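Protein Record: Sequence and Backbone Structure Tokens
======================================================
Tokens: labelled as protein backbone structure tokens, with as many entries as the chain has residues.
Task: work out the structure tokens from the sequence, keeping to the layout shown below.
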Amino acid sequence: MAKETRSLSGKVVAITGGGRGIGRAIAQALAREGALVAVGDLDVAAAETVAAELGGQALGLSLDVTDHAGFTGFLDEVESKLGPLDILVNNAGIMPVTPLAEESPASVARQLEINLHAVIHGTQEAMRRMVPRRTGHIVQLASVAGRSGFPQLATYCATKHGVVGLSEAVRVELRDTGVEVSVVMPGIVRTELSTGLTEARGVKSVSADDVASEVVGALKRPRFDVFVPRSTGPLVAIGSALPRRAREGLVRLLKADEALLKTDRAARAAYEARAAASAPAAEHERETV
């Protein structure tokens, strides 16, 4: 029996890292559905710009997801101004591209804090707010890198595998509570994050709007695994069933790893610099320990 389509009109949504890229596209898509959207971003000007574009009661707020007390305060402010939280989109994340042997300890720690620890904290906060009301939906922006391994993205893959594992466990914990979990797993998305990556045979890139459309779909008809494009799902399933040598051979045959191996580092310089400055609370804590 097909699931009933849920209305998103009037739903209170908080989106982390919503000032640009996928987060911005999700904010726009949900606002079109009538949701009340709060955009949190380290770049508060970007968050405010998105909120102004959305109009209505949309909020643009400062948010450093590595500042856990600040993250909690962000959600408190959203609820005080818009109402009880219905949907949390854990979107904020960074993706430095570098061989693991050359990656700095600061880069590793930064990704763990933003891509994983902040998602854990946000998920805890959402559960505490949603479970007592027996309603809500937590959306985790993971990646197909959370289901496989890619060269020069070792730490990123580790964090996204962590998000997928976290969500698998939380899904079980939330059974029969009325609170849903969805894990969104895009491939290469044409945003600033993918700047300098080359197109590889067998790897179809998608737009931020494509991802946003799938998020809206998963909220209206809840499902856990959200692959973007959808064709990635069967490929991941087939790959998981193959022996490791055959799976790795298929990746080489399709040249699916070339997007990372042939990265244009000069083109990525601006993004990499911004990513390196994206966790001020975590950096401050390390400096004072």
